[in-house]
C-alpha cells in the first residue's frame, strides 16, 4: 500500500511503501536507523541486517543524506518516537542518490543557511515553522468565513500609498509611475462599502532600510475591514481572531510545537479578552520604569517589549497621537489630538502584530488630511468618493503574518517565518 508518513497510523502491522528523502542516518554493522521525511512528516526506518536481504542492508548503509527513495516496510506503533510510529524496513528503491548535500547535521552560520534557503526549508525546524504558518492561514480563512466576512483581493500595483511615502517601492507602469502595495486597506474600505465585512490576505511591500528581526521587505498581511463598526467593536473582532489562531495552532500543530521546543503554556493563555491600555498610560508606565520617552514620540522595539512584559496576553495600546499615525485615522471625538486606533503588542517581545483603526468618514476632514499630507486629489479622488456616497462608520486592521508566525513558533527572527525572505540586501535565492 502506497501511503504517506502522516497516514501510517492507519496501517499498523501492515506493509506500506512511502516516497521519502533521507534526512539523516545512523548505522552499525548490524542495524541502520534511517531518519526519513516525505513532507507530511518524519519517521524512523529501521533496517536490521539479519532480517533483510544482504543487498537491502548494503543499500541502507550506503544511502547518502537527501537521497530520494521508495521505502517499503511494516508500520510499528512506537510510543518513544515523536510521530508515534516506526517503520521496520523490508526493501528500498533508490530514486536519486544525492551527493555532498551542503546542509549537514552539524551547525551552520545564518548567512550560509540563508544562501541555501531552498534546501534549508527541508530541515525539521523549518518544516515545523512552515506548517505552523499554514495552520495560521487555514485558521484565518476559517475564522473570517465563519463570521460572515467575504475574501476580497486588493491590487498589488497601485498609484497611491496608504502608509506614508518613505518606504515605497517604485516601478514603471507603462507611461505612469506605480508602487507596490504597502497595504490593501484603502481598497478594502471600498470593498467593505460593497460587501459589508471583508478580509484580504496578500503580499505587501515596504522598502525598509532598517535591519531588525521584525522587518521584512516583502511580508504578508491579513486585512479585515468592516462597515458599520466602530473601533471598540473592531477590537473585539481582533482579540477573538488572534485567540482563534493561537488555539488552532495549539490544537493542530502539537508535533511542530514540540519540534520547535515551544513553551505551549504561554500560548494557552492567549484567550479573549485582551487588556487595553491607552497610549497616555503606556507613556506614563515607561517613564516610571526609567525609559527616556516623551508624549508624542512613537514606541521603539524596546518600549514595546517593556510594555508586553507586564502581561501574559497580547495587549492593545489605544489612542495614539494623530501626528505619528496614518492620514486616514478618525480623531477621538473628545480629544482630536489622538486617534481611534490601536496596536496589538504580542507577549514575549515579538512586537506589534496588528495595526488598526476606525477610519475618517467625513469628506471635509479627509480633504483636510490630504492637504496636510500632500496627497494629490488625482490619485485619491476615488477614496474620497467613499465619503461622498453613503459614508458610514467603519473600522479595520492589518495583522502581520510573519510576526505572528514568529510569536507562535517562538523563533527569534522573521526571516525564518516566510519561505523565501526578502531582506535588506537579500534577493537570493
Ligand atoms: O501597522 P501597519 O503599518 O498597518 C497597516 O498597514 C494598516 N493599513 C493595516 C490596516 O488597518 N488594514 O502594518 C500592519 C502590521 C503590523 O502590525 C506588523 O505586524 C506588520 O503589519 N508589518 C510588518 N511585518 C513584517 N515586516 C514589516 N516591514 C512590516 N511592517 C508592518
Ligand atoms: Mg503599525
Automatic annotation (TrEMBL):
Homodimer. This is Asparagine--tRNA ligase. One of its GO terms (molecular function) is asparagine-tRNA ligase activity. InterPro entries: Aa-tRNA-synt_II, aa-tRNA-synth_II, aa-tRNA-synth_II/BPL/LPL, Asn-tRNA-ligase, Asp/Asn-tRNA-synth_IIb, NA-bd_OB-fold, NA-bd_OB_tRNA. Residues 130-429 form the Aminoacyl-transfer RNA synthetases class-II family profile domain. Keywords: Aminoacyl-tRNA synthetase, ATP-binding, Coiled coil, Cytoplasm, Ligase, Nucleotide-binding, Protein biosynthesis. Belongs to the class-II aminoacyl-tRNA synthetase family. Residues 243-270 form a coiled coil.
Amino acid at each position: 500500500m502506497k501511503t504517506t508518513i502522516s497516514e501510517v497510523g492507519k496501517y499498523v502491522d501492515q506493509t506500506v511503501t512511502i516516497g521519502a528523502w533521507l534526512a539523516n542516518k545512523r548505522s552499525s554493522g548490524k542495524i541502520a536507523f534511517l531518519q526519513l521525511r516525505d513532507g507530511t512528516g518524519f519517521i524512523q526506518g529501521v533496517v536490521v541486517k539479519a532480517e533483510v536481504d544482504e543487498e537491502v542492508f548494503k543499500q541502507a548503509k550506503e544511502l547518502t543524506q537527501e537521497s530520494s527513495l521508495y521505502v517499503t516496510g511494516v508500520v510499528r506503533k512506537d510510543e518513544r518516537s515523536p510521530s508515534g510510529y516506526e517503520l521496520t524496513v523490508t526493501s528500498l528503491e533508490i530514486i536519486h542518490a544525492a551527493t555532498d548535500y551542503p546542509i549537514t547535521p552539524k551547525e551552520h552560520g545564518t548567512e550560509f543557511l540563508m544562501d541555501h534557503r531552498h534546501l534549508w526549508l527541508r530541515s525539521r525546524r523549518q518544516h515545523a515553522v512552515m506548517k505552523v504558518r499554514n495552520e495560521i492561514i487555514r485558521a484565518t480563512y476559517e475564522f473570517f468565513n465563519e463570521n460572515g466576512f467575504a475574501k476580497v483581493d486588493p491590487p498589488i500595483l497601485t498609484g497611491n500609498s496608504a502608509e506614508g511615502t518613505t518606504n515605497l517601492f517604485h516601478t514603471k507602469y507603462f507611461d505612469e509611475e506605480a508602487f507596490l502595495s504597502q497595504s490593501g486597506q484603502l481598497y478594502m474600505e471600498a470593498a467593505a462599502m460593497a460587501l459589508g465585512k471583508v478580509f484580504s490576505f496578500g503580499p505587501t511591500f515596504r522598502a525598509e532600510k532598517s535591519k531588525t528581526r521584525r522587518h521584512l521587505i516583502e511580508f504578508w498581511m491579513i486585512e479585515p475591514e468592516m462597515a458599520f463598526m466602530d473601533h471598540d467593536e473592531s477590537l473585539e473582532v481582533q482579540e477573538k481572531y488572534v485567540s482563534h489562531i493561537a488555539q488552532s495552532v495549539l490544537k493542530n500543530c502539537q508535533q511542530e510545537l514540540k519540534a520547535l521546543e515551544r513553551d505551549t503554556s504561554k500560548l494557552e493563555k492567549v484567550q479573549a479578552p485582551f487588556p487595553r491600555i491607552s497610549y497616555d498610560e503606556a507613556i506614563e508606565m515607561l517613564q516610571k520604569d526609567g525609559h527616556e520617552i516623551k508624549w508624542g514620540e512613537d514606541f521603539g522595539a524596546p518600549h514595546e517589549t517593556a510594555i508586553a512584559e507586564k502581561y501574559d496576553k497580547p495587549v492593545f495600546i489605544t489612542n495614539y497621537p494623530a501626528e505619528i499615525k496614518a492620514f486616514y485615522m478618525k480623531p477621538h471625538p473628545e480629544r482630536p489630538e489622538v486617534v481611534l486606533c490601536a496596536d496589538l503588542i504580542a507577549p514575549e517581545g515579538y512586537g506589534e502584530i496588528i495595526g488598526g483603526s476606525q477610519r475618517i468618514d467625513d469628506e471635509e476632514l479627509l480633504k483636510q488630511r490630504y492637504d496636510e499630507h500632500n496627497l494629490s486629489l488625482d490619485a485619491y479622488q476615488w477614496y474620497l468618493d467613499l465619503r461622498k456616497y453613503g459614508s458610514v462608520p467603519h473600522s479595520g486592521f492589518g495583522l502581520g503574518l510573519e510576526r505572528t508566525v514568529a510569536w507562535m513558533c517562538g523563533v527569534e527572527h522573521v526571516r525564518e517565518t516566510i519561505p523565501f525572505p526578502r531582506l535588506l540586501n537579500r534577493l537570493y535565492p
